[in-house]
Amino acid sequence: MTSEHTAPGGLLPLGDGPAVSRLGYGAMQLPGLGAWGPPRDPVAARAVLRRAAELGVTHIDTSDFYGPHVANDLIREALHPYPDDLVIATKVGVVRDEWRGWNAAATPADLRDQVEENLSRLGRARLDLVYLRVGGDGMLFPDDTPFAESFATLAELRKRGLIRHLGLSGVTVAQLAEARELAPVTAVQNRFHLLDRGCSDVLAACEEHRIAFVPYFPLAAGMLRPGLDTSQAPPGMAPTPEQERTVDDIAGRHGASRAQVMLAWLLARSPVTFAIPGTSSVAHLEENVAATGLRLSEDDIAGLDELA
Fold this sequence. Notes:
The chain starts with 10 loop residues before the first strand and ends with a helix. Strands 3-4-5-8-9-10-11 form a seven-stranded parallel sheet, covered by helices on one side. The radius of gyration is 18 Å and the shape is globular. By secondary structure, the chain is an alpha/beta fold. It is built from ten helices and eleven strands. It is 36% helix and 14% strand. Helix 1 (42-54) packs across helix 2 and helix 7 (241-254) crosses helix 8 (258-269). The longest helix is centred in the middle third of the chain and has 15 residues, at 108-122.
């Protein structure tokens, strides 16, 4: 059983739910390129999952639309029967098309089908945490189904015992408030990282209501990898030379990597934040976990705070 001393980043409750490692693992990179199709090396993909468990990670983030189906199948193959303290969070509200697109699918029938598919693929009688993925953050065209109707569908599945905790992904403060009128919200997963804090208002609302905040793209989608060509990056995603120098200076003082600095900053940013970096490499996984041992100074954090 993972303890406070062995869990990467320590243990913290997911809202009013179970306590999990603050440094978790995101399964989006387990399938092939673009989260589509099988991995190039399925054995290596399963090895990453098993190593995460060995390192005390008790929070895995996935979705059946990663692959589709591939990430969930790999998780079951690698870790089932699951440790008692492992929390697997998944997302619904999106399906993939034959062109590898990401399409909103949040009608009551769609969501019931997606929940059943996640249950089947993961081999569970109840899902620990299910996020409703919506388009409030501009990353996904919203579904025509009213937001309240979609969330109410998941709330009903929770009452039936198929879901333990409910979450939201890609939402605004207004959507979070609307959802909380219908059912408890345990966690929120929005885009948030060192270079993009556009949803700081959502983080503040999570702090106020003691809701877990679990940023996706915690490493800026790799935009701060040394030597990466960012010339084709979306507007606002590519780091400036000044941002790179600031991160490099702090990383150099601590003998750390850029990614480790970004993860350490994220965990220090708020008492309700978690991190779920993804990777298909055991070495990168171990580097990410080691970031939880990095202690940034107040000056380090102040310098990083000014970068966004």
